[in-house]
Amino acid sequence: MKSFAHLALSAALLAATAGFAATPDSGKTLAYIHKAWPTLTRSLADCSALADSKVATHPLLYLPADFPAPDGLAAIAKKCGVEVRALPRKVARIGDIQPSELPRQGVLYLPNPYVVPGGFFNEMYGWDSYFIVLGLLADGHTDLARDMVENQLFEVEHYGAVLNANRSYYLTRSQPPFLSAMIRAVLDDSKSFRSKEEAQSWLKHAYPLAVRDHDIWTSKPHQAGDTGLARYFDYGDGPVPEFRDAKYLQDVIRWLRAHPKDDPGYLIKASQNPDDAEAAQLKKTSCDVRASTVCADAWLDGYRLTADYYRGDRAMRESGFDVTFRFGPFAGSTHHYAPACLNSLLFRYEQDLRDFAARLGLDDEAKRWDAAAKARHAAIDKYLWHADQGMYADYDAQAGKPSTYAYISAFYPLWAGAASKEQAAAMQKKIALLERKGGLSMSTTDSGVQWDEPFGWAPTNWIAIAGLDRYGYHDDARRLARKFTATIDRGFADDGTIREKYNMVSGDAKVAIKAGYKDNVIGFGWTNGVYLKLTALLAAPPDTP
Q1: Bridge partners of residue 85, in order along the sequence
Q2: Pick from 400, 469, 474, 483: which is nearest to 441 by CA?
Q3: Whether 117 contacts 131, CB under 8 Å
Q4: CB–CB of 6/149 below 8 Å?
Q5: Can you tell me the distance from the alpha carbon of 108 to that of 228, in angstroms, rounded to the nearest whole number?
Q6: CB neighbours (10 Å) of residue 77?
Q7: What is the C-alpha separation between 533 and 137, in angstroms, rounded?
Q8: Which residues are catalytic?
Q9: What's the number of CA atoms in the CB half-sphere (13 Å) around residue 508?
Q10: Phi, psi of 257 (to 5 degrees)
Q11: Measured between alpha carbons, how far is 171 from 166 in angstroms, rounded to an integer?
Q12: Dist CA 151 CA 174 (whole Å)
């Protein structure tokens, strides 16, 4: 691993380049990021990966059922005071093991070091890792970036998919599919491998696992009706097991009771203390009050939440956008939609698999992936592009109509290369919908939750900016990059930290969430990575795509 003192982007370099004027604040932010990677790096060897403030139990490490205990693990377990168990059986696909089957929740073994987001997010997350890998590569930490990709390949092989994160309570869901983009980022980095032969051998190992991960998204549970598009879906039922209590669910009920006209049908009347007959019925219509304390406590004013709401809530968590009102109040209808973000990611995934297959000499497979990408592109144009609005939108596959909720995910097709020149030009005209003092806001709706107006996040700002830059809108991309990096700089100057999200209206880290998850965690892995990518974009000549 290269030295963490390596400074890939110096403040002096930034000051000398067109389009980005380095300031004392930006120099301090860069210095902080360069030094932050070790504080966010976890491995079993130093016990740091085992702690989980979300589950207050004695540390437990799960090994795959089909994986022998690594040398030295017994000594690590003794040093860290962790119990080691094997999962009850081999996992063929995600959801094969329900967290409720396990005696208690724990960390899932990964073979290599990895970077966590920060704070109580003390595990390797699915889509966070892509933006972290971009930052590691930009900062010269190629070995660690490759370690993270190999960890995700290990998850696919032994846990059935790239997981939400490597905790046992995430065994039923994935996260937005960036694995092929991570593989490509490592392959494209000239310092990741000692030779072309080594890179080819690595791709030969990675490719079939990437195919296996992709197949999850085309399986029936992840199909959005007969659209040919995908949806987010979790293979569990009822409240997610990482809920510590029912307060969030009670808040959802409270909001729906206060806004009855906005309730899509998420509420059902039920007793606070149901008898056995009602409990058996609630197991079908809501959740299992006998098996889950959180489910039992998720009651307010004579109402409980429906089973369909819980399916949508779980799907929302797979989407990574938890919480937004994009798919109904508190995103309780997420599983009914074919989202622009997910299907853009899968279009790019299929193009990546086409290129990987061609590079490996698998011509028939390359043709198959090319056909899959073209079919998805046609479905994106049919269901997600709306020429009358000049904008991409999610599609409600259950209701058979497009969403009218303006959201930053409309720019994902540009990042993926799925937009025509005309579609990209129309989207460029929509920037003003979301552009604020601090960068791009998530939506035009101030719902009070963290993935909506006025909040902005590093990953979605990067995807939109990179997409605009890809289609030649360099001035827009650089203007937005300056805004978002300045927001991070202001937040860092204020309290010496980098955060997971920012206020786009005020252009700082002053975040006040009204409902749902309310913290603004310090760290922060993907913000670090995106800041480095944005400063690199600003440091490039203005006409560089």
Answers
A1: 62
A2: 483
A3: no
A4: no
A5: 33
A6: 18
A7: 10
A8: 322, 500
A9: 10
A10: -65, -35
A11: 8
A12: 14
Q: What is the side-by-side strand order in the sheet with 83-86? A: 83-86, 60-63, 107-108
E strands, 298-427, where? 303-305, 337-338, 385-386, 391-392, 395-396, 401-402
Give the model's confidence band at 543: pLDDT under 50 very low, under 70 low, under 90 confident, else very high.
low
The two beta strands, 107-108 and 60-63, are: parallel
**Within 10 Å of residue 275's Cβ, how many Cβ atoms?**
8
Three-class DSSP category at 360: coil
Helix, strand or coil, per DSSP, at residue 24? helix
Neighbours of 514 (CB within 10 A): 12
Q: Can you say whether residue 414 is alpha, beta or left, with left for phi > 0 and alpha for psi between -120 and 50 degrees?
A: alpha
Given a cut of 60, is residue 20 above it in pLDDT?
Answer: no
Q: Residue 264's pLDDT is what?
A: 97
Query: How many residues appear in the chain?
Result: 545
The span from the CA of 168 to the CA of 166, in Å, is 7
For residues 5 and 58, the model is more confident at 58
Question: Token pair of 422, please?
Answer: 């005309």
Output DSSP code: residue 118.
B
Tokens of 179: 């694995």
Three-class SS of 199-243: HHHHHHHHHHHHHHHHHHHHCHHHECCCCCCECCCCCCCCCCCCC
pLDDT band for position 45 (50/70/90)?
A: confident
pLDDT surpassing 90 at residue 56: no
Buried b (16+ CB within 10 A) or exposed e, 361-396: ebeebbeebbebbeebbebbbebbbbeeeebbbbbb
211 residue type, one letter: V
Contact 95, 171 (CB under 8 A): yes
What number is the average pLDDT over the span 196-219?
Answer: 98
Take residue 319 and report the two structure tokens written for it: 């989407």
The 10s digit of each residue's pLDDT in 339-394 is: 999 999 999 999 999 999 999 999 999 999 999 999 999 999 999 999 999 999 99
The tens digit of pLDDT for each residue in 72-122 reads 999 999 999 999 999 999 999 999 999 999 999 999 999 999 999 999 999
Q: What are 496's two structure tokens?
A: 């010496």
For every residue of 405-463, DSSP letters joined together read --BGGGGHHHHHT-S-HHHHHHHHTTHHHHEETTEE-SBS---SSTTSTTEEEHHHHHH
pLDDT average, residue stretch 176-182: 98
Using 50, 70 and 90 to split pLDDT, how confident is the model at 18? very low
- Compute CA distances 482 → 15, 19, 143, 468, whole Å: 13, 9, 30, 14
